[in-house]
Design goal:
mainly alpha; Hydantoin permease; binds phenylalanine; Na/ntran_symport; Sodium-dependent transporter; membrane; transport
Length: 448
């Protein structure tokens, strides 16, 4: 089994894949929206602190579990277990992560399908098919099912090819495309009237809000969602990292990329909102709050693109392709969690397992679509507000309380012989044992 598992062929391959998983709709849509509605730079500051001080240590725990176990989340956690009780607990935590990834994919695929459909709309307009253009952005059942199916097909297509040929190859192609598109769009928005005002709103912190409980909870949730924690994803990606690599730096690099892209997305979306306002588009809802969520992406921004005439069609296309690409490199990681579990635990061939699980998740998506007003929110809340923090916390408990210090050190020393003398080793084990689980628990209880 070990020989056929696959491994990232290079350090950059892992960085692109893990950053691909991390950078998604959460960064380009969630982060700017949350920032705009939580006092601008105050939220950014808190987010940065929490991302590095809480999410990064938890992320390291998950990578380490996977690299040690060299297997899917359940098997990896069980390898660290010493008693039958640990083993059962390991199963619950690992399998919980697998289910969480599947649940997230079942609604994420719908949102990503919308991005694809909005990228097709300008093409339909260019070729003069106004009926198609209207249909692809309608909220009809058929349109939702079709575009979710298209997006799931792409996800399955990549994952069927495995680690090197699928995940790594496509992440290496798509991530540079994503960064290029993002930078071009930022450059363009900065040339427009109103952008400076947006920049001010983004970068001037309202420090008084820094300690607001709501802001803290949103920032922590955002940081965990963004690093794909508590879903078995980073455990399985960790298991594909070669023992020659230095995990501590790799983890830090991925966190840095994730946070930087969220920051860049803020530089695009928030100024774009103020440019829209300068063009007469309403950016405040009736209660005086900034329009966020789907209203921002599917109403405010498209209205802005419309004011740009012909150029607007290109900008709209580029923007929604950017969103689709970001979503795809994340969705493949969500599918890899359940697929690796079925392939390794039940000895099913990868291609068959991928298609089968892809279809199952798609059926779940259609169930959500059939009652979208209620189900979308319900599944999203269940998986991201409950599932992710609880499972991420239990992974920290596993590393901190069940694993021996000497074993942790041994695994960290692979590819990093001097880790014992580093600041990381002085702080992190203690941090993962006490601070991470407590902080996650506090925030979690608070959010209830
Ligand atoms: N991190 C991704 C994003 O920001 C979402 C994600 C969550 C990916 C969980 C994998 C697992 O959009």
């Amino acid at each position: 089994m070990a020989a056929s598992r696959g491994e990232f062929s290079s350090r950059i391959g892992f960085i692109m894949a893990a950053a691909g998983s991390a950078v998604g709709l959460g960064n380009i849509w969630g982060f700017p929206t949350q920032t705009a509605s939580n006092g601008g730079a105050a939220f950014v500051l808190v987010y940065l602190v929490l991302a590095f001080c809480l999410a990064y240590p938890a992320f390291m725990a998950e990578l380490l579990i996977g690299r040690y176990g060299q297997a899917n989340a359940v098997t990896s956690l069980q390898k660290m277990s010493r008693t039958l009780f640990h083993k059962r607990f390991a199963f619950l935590v690992g399998f919980g992560g697998v289910i969480c990834a599947a649940l997230i994919l079942s609604f994420y695929g719908i949102l990503a399908g919308w991005m694809v459909s909005y990228a097709i709309e300008p093409i339909a307009k260019v070729i003069g098919s106004d009926t198609t253009a209207t249909w692809v952005i309608s909220q009809s059942l058929a349109r939702n099912v079709l575009f979710t199916a298209i997006f799931m097909f792409l996800t399955v297509f990549v994952i069927r090819r495995g680690v090197e040929d699928g995940i790594e190859k496509w992440s290496k192609r798509l991530m540079p495309l994503l960064i290029t598109l993002l930078i071009i769009l930022i450059g363009y928005v900065f040339t427009l009237d109103g952008a400076t005002e947006g920049l001010n709103a983004y970068l001037n912190p309202d420090i008084s809000r820094v300690l607001e409980p709501d802001l803290l909870i949103s920032a922590l949730g955002q940081a965990f969602f963004s690093l794909s924690l508590g879903t078995s994803v980073m455990v399985i990606y960790g298991s594909y990292i070669s023992k020659k690599e230095n995990l501590v730096t790799l983890g830090a690099q991925v966190t840095l990329i994730d946070v930087s892209i969220a920051f860049l997305a803020g530089l695009l979306i928030i100024p774009a909102m103020y440019v829209a306002q300068a063009q007469g588009v309403a950016i405040f809802a009736e209660d005086g709050s900034l329009i966020s969520g789907s209203g921002l992406v599917f109403t405010v921004l498209p209205s802005l693109f419309e004011t740009m005439g012909g150029m607007g069609l290109f900008v709209a296309f580029a923007f929604f392709i950017l969103m689709s690409v970001a979503a795809l490199t994340s969705s493949i990681s969500m599918l890899e969690g359940p697929v690796s579990f079925v392939v390794e635990r039940h000895n099913v061939e990868r291609k068959k397992a991928t298609t089968f699980i892809g279809i199952l998740i798609f059926i779940m998506s259609t169930a959500i679509i059939s009652n979208i007003g209620v189900m979308l929110d319900f599944v999203a809340t269940l998986a991201t507000e409950y599932g992710q923090p609880i499972i991420a916390m239990l992974c920290c408990v596993f590393v901190g309380w069940i694993w021996h210090r000497s074993e942790i050190l041994k695994e960290l020393q692979e590819g990093n012989e001097t880790v014992e003398n580093s600041l990381f080793w002085k702080i992190w084990p203690w941090y993962t044992k006490f601070i991470c689980p407590t902080a996650i628990l506090i925030v979690f209880i608070h959010s209830l």
